[in-house]
Write a structure and sequence with these properties.
Shape: globular
Oligomer: single chain
Number of domains: 2
Number of helices: 7
Helix content: 25-40%
Largest sheet: 5 strands, antiparallel
Radius of gyration: 16 Å
Order of helices and strands: HHEHHEEEEEEHHH
Distance between the termini: 31 Å
Structural class: alpha+beta
Amino acid sequence: MIKPEEFNNKWDINKDGPLITFNEQELIGLDFSDELKKFLTVAGLPETPPPYLEFTSSEGLLRPVTSVFNMPESFQRYWFLGSTGSGDPICLIEEQETVVFLHNSDNYKEVYINSSLNQFAECILVYSKMIDKAIEVNGEDAFIDNDIPNSVINWLKEELVKIDGKCLEEGSFWAVEVENLFE
C-alpha cells in the first residue's frame, strides 16, 4: 500500500496539478485511523485528478456528507472528500474507511471505489500513468478522443487489481471507468 510520502514523490504537481492537504487540527477529534489522518495531512488529494474527479470542494476539511448535501441522517456515517465528474459525492465510510461514491441519481446508492484511501490515491496515480502511456502511443489527444490502445487498458486493469483486488468487481467505480475506455 502506498505511503503518503511515496504518493507525494510520484504525483507530478507540474503536470497533474496541486494536492490539497487536510488540516491536522480538524482531524484530531475524528474517529479515523492515524494512518488515514496521516495520508490526508501529509499527501492529501489531487485537486482535479483523472478520471474527472474533484476534491477542491472539500476545502481540505473532512466533514459528514450530510453537512454538505441535504441528505437524510442515515448518511451521517459517510464523510465527504469530493465528487465524481457526475457530481456524485465521494466519501469515506466511518469505521471501515472504505472509499465509495453515493450515486445521486439512484437514491444515493453506495458504489464501491477502493478499500482504503491509500489504495484510492494509488489507483488515481495508475490511471494518470495510463493516460501518459496512451499519449505516448497515440498522441496528445489520445485520452480526450478515447483512442487508448487495448494493451494500455489491459495494463491499467492489471495494475488496478494489484492495488485493490475488489476495485474491478462488476458495478464498482473503477470497473465502470475501465469499461468506458473500451467504448
